[in-house]
Amino acid sequence: MYQSRWTVSFLAVKVFIESLLWVPGRAGSGRGPGGQPAAELRLALWNTERKRRNDSGRPLCVQVGGTGRRTAHASIAPMSAAPPQPAPPGPGALPTVPPGGSVATGSQNDPLAALADRCVQCGLCLPACPTYGHDRLEAESPRGRIALARAWALDTIPATAASDAHLDHCLGCRSCEAVCPAGVEYGRLLVAARSRQRERRPAGWRQRLAERLAARPRALAAGLAMYRAAYPLLPAAARPLPRPPGRVRALPHRAAASTARVSLFVGCVAEAYEAPLRAALARLCGGLGIELDIAPGQGCCGALHEHAGDTAAAAALAARNRVAFAGRGSVLSLASGCHDSLRRALGDGAHATDALAFVAERAGALRWRRTPQRVALHLPCTQRNVVKSVPALRRLLAAVPGLEVVELDAGFGCCGASGTQMLTEPARAAEYRAPLLAQFERSGATRLLSANVGCRLHFANAIAAPVLHPLEFLAECLDDGFAPG
């Protein structure tokens, strides 16, 4: 009888613990893409918490975020108890460590594991994460990816195509960093995890093609020129990007007496697509008495390579830009997605400055014509979470008389462009973009403004309305004695 009662009690406790550790999936299935059970992630979370308890002497506490609105935890005292056992793996499931097998054969000093160990698994990142909001799967959250990355670093579980997909889906928006109370450097962790991933699995052909073209300015220019020429003949499915603009004449402007000179970072894809924006910036800087200089020998910032795990190529591109801009003082960056990589590349030889913040600091010297228009403003993830130039942009737009600005904030917190993800995962990227497009259509705005080139290309491929960088629009509003545009 006592044995029967003990068995029933043990099973009840086991069911209770597993219910707390249950990871929500679509339609309550508890499975990830391809029928993957959530138990593998539970095992990774268990091992992470077990290691933390061994280090700190605190009771074991495994936290789950549920829907992102409630947090539950279970304190499990005996460390000798077995971790939750995964169900038999289904098709495409992650292989797991067998009962009684080794749970961590990797080095505890692994740098990737050290980055992951800063996560306290509080779950505050879940509501901020676009992929978790989209999929409602723990493995599609920062906490889940951190647990998986640590498990891979310590050989707790082997990596498979199913688990790789969760890392591939991360948009790199770093919204989780903005709300993390433990200060987890998720951006660094993501690059480190993808670098390990790339060592054992080559990138897809679209990613490799994009990287090779971005690193070779002449090849990229030739490719985009051919794309522009063939664009009218291509079917919609063969138009992953909008048509590049043709030749752009310099905008007329009345320059004040030149008092300073700054360099401009051009970039890779932006060189072909942002010619109108560079002309607009020259007009604004002319009104400020500042001369723009484009340094020879510069190239891609390397963000596209780094975020995909090719850190060696990113370092080589950074070195090229460091040489090109050495001793040039301030270097203006127009794309929020390039700014952080450029800043780190320049080091002490020059200083990367966001062009929006640069103009905003000096905007008192500019005059704006009355512009009775309604425009929609998209705030890219990199502008919000990395460059942090949103207040400067709002001040600039607020200074234009008659202008009405509608900020787009619908959906998941990211438009889905995410560097090359709009090319490698077009269906998912379109799903992230859809709520923002719907809000734009409802807003009655005639134009859409966004400070990142990737986001603008992603939007421009879906709507007929003009999609501009905010500085491009502000140059039209400039009251310098010339007609708009």
Mind sketching the topology for me?
Blueprint lengths: L1 H19 L18 H18 L3 E5 L7 E5 L34 H6 L13 H6 L6 H12 L7 H9 L5 H5 L6 H15 L4 H10 L2 H14 L29 E6 L3 H5 L1 H13 L2 E4 L9 H4 L4 H14 L4 E5 L2 H11 L3 E5 H7 L12 E5 L2 H7 L2 H9 L5 E5 L12 H4 L1 H18 L3 E4 L2 H8 L6 E2 L1 H8 L8
Parallel strand pairs: 3-4, 3-5, 5-6, 7-8, 7-9, 9-10
Antiparallel strand pairs: 1-2
Helix pairs in contact: 2-5, 12-22, 14-15, 15-17, 16-18
Q: Top keywords for this entry?
A:
4-stranded parallel β-sheet; iron; Helical_ferredxn; 485 residues; Rossmann fold; 9% strand; globular; disordered N terminus; alpha/beta; 46% helix; 22 helices; 3 domains; 4Fe-4S
How would you characterize the overall build of this protein?
This protein folds into 3 domains: 2-200, no CATH class; 248-361, Rossmann fold, CATH 3.40.50; 366-477, Rossmann fold (3-Layer(aba) Sandwich), CATH 3.40.50. Helices cover 46% and strands 9% of the residues. It is built from 22 helices and 10 strands. It has helices at 2-20, 39-56, 111-116, 130-135, 142-153, 161-169, 175-179, 186-200, 205-214, 217-230, 269-273, 275-287, 303-306, 311-324, 336-346, 355-361, 381-387, 390-398, 421-424, 426-443, 453-460, 470-477, and strands at residues 60-64, 72-76, 260-265, 290-293, 329-333, 350-354, 374-378, 404-408, 447-450, 467-468. A 4-stranded parallel sheet has the order 4-3-5-6, with helices on both faces. The chain has a 4-stranded parallel sheet with strand order 8-7-9-10. Strands 1-2 form a two-stranded antiparallel ribbon. Helix 15 (336-346) links the parallel strand 5 and strand 6 (350-354).
